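User: Quick sanity check before I run a bigger batch. Here is a single chain. Can you write out its predicted 3D structure?
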Amino acid sequence: MKAGMKLVFAGTPEFAREALAALHAAGFQIPLVLTQPDRPAGRGMKLQASPVKQFALEHGIQVAQPHSLKLDGKYPDEAAAAKALLESVGADVMVVAAYGLILPKWTLQLPRLGCLNIHASLLPRWRGAAPIHRAIEAGDEATGITIMQMDEGLDTGDMLLIEREPIRPDDTTAVLHDRLATLGGRLIVEALELAACGGFTPQPQPAEGITYAHKIEKAEAAIDWRQPAAEIERRVRAFDPFPGSTFTLGSDTIKLWRTSVVQASGTPGEVLHVQGDTLVVACGEQALALHTLQRPGGKRVPTKDFLQNAPTGLPPHLA
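Assistant: Done. Predicted structure follows.
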């Protein structure tokens, strides 16, 4: 049955590439991949293909990159061409993972089995754009992957498969992302194998426990030392690798990458202890030991190396 199922894959970043690789390895027919247009990236700001596009091209899969799928939107010609292409493929199902474009109603209804989304949370908690970041930031003990039948709402569709993944005390978004990407690849293969056997059992999402994972903004990077140390510690991990957590030292914006909570007190932002590899800063509740920092244009370094290269030392308070 698997070899006879034809799917279109829509996704863009590394999280989606992992799922595409799992589906390809499992032997599903994938005649077409949709991904976002190439974007400028890196110091040279050269156009770069998405991880999904790179995988597709390496494996001889046709790629389409419309700016929009809305037939009445800003790019109606691109949307119409994408619609004609999807209709010609005649896929049984579309698999969507971090695609980055809104799927209009015609897209959701086109495949025989509709569109299935790989969402990186235990729905209905953390619907929206940044579920991994927000789960760590909130101090959740676990997150997971939900395979969902897409509808016109924001991550509101019926659930097909769901699996829990513990959040470890030292998890950053980067580390947890990789575990969830692997889990998402495994679960979407299981979901499509069930579909091939007619084994779908959709379950409506619970009405209780709905939260929204709003997009991460660069402005959130600035550390507010008035917050509890535990909150700041979680945000540091949640914002690794983007946008990072920052404070001001003189005219420099310093990024903070690793911390731990310590039992100490003082005025928020007060430097309580500086010696060797130890830098402790007071917070609204308790204090933070700062372990890994980064100067503008530099690399992440242990606190000891950072302090050795601080030409004028540290002020009594950090901003």
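Residues 11 and 97 are 5 Å apart (CA to CA).

User: Great, the batch can go ahead then.
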